[in-house]
Amino acid sequence: MLITAQSDDLGQALSGCASGDRMALRRIFDQESGRLVSIAQRIVRRRDLAEEVVQESFIRIWTHAHQYQPDRGSARGWIYAIVRNRALNLIRDGKREHSMEEIESFRESEETEEIMIAWQRLDRNTRLYECLGALEERKRNGILMAYVGGYSHGEIAGKLQLPLGTAKSWIRRGLMALRECMA
């Protein structure tokens, strides 16, 4: 229930940001910035770039808080999606390239543990937990790796030892099944 209370606080803080309350943005920063930098760093692989991503994300959170719609998802999910998308955009724009050494250096046990922690933290009484639980384990892990861990489809294919097209299809089909289940 702690996660639900924090999500409610984040929703209220986003509402405050939409109203121009700078302290609301500060509350979001104080509560989430450490985890957001960690997520961004996992994607861009450098602390300095991760901090830049989070800084840009907080500007976007401030300027776009009015677009958050509680009926479409959690405040935390909305905030984390902004950070994830900013980090991926940084990579796509060519400002950060992964080397084969970096891709191969992912630590199997850490990423599995991180995904399982995210899965276990999810409130078991939510529709999202129920819908994720209905997915085949490998598809669920692929989705969690993409949206919790910030891994690219290529990285997920490598970790799950699948062809890239198969990994993309599984994630796409898993997301479609999630959307259908959540509707």
TrEMBL record:
Transcription found in the keyword field: yes
One Gene Ontology molecular-function label: sigma factor activity
Annotated ranges, domain RNA polymerase sigma factor 70 region 4 type: 127-178
Family annotation (InterPro entries): RNA_pol_sigma-70-like (IPR039425), RNA_pol_sigma-70_dom (IPR014284), RNA_pol_sigma70_r2 (IPR007627), RNA_pol_sigma70_r4_t2 (IPR013249), RNA_pol_sigma_r2 (IPR013325), RNA_pol_sigma_r3/r4-like (IPR013324), WH-like_DNA-bd_sf (IPR036388)
Ranges for domain RNA polymerase sigma-70 region: 29-96
GO biological process, one term: DNA-templated transcription initiation
Top-level taxon: Bacteria
UniProt KW keywords: Sigma factor, Transcription, Transcription regulation
Family: Belongs to the sigma-70 factor family. ECF subfamily.
The protein's name: Sigma-70 family RNA polymerase sigma factor
The organism of origin for this protein: Peteryoungia ipomoeae
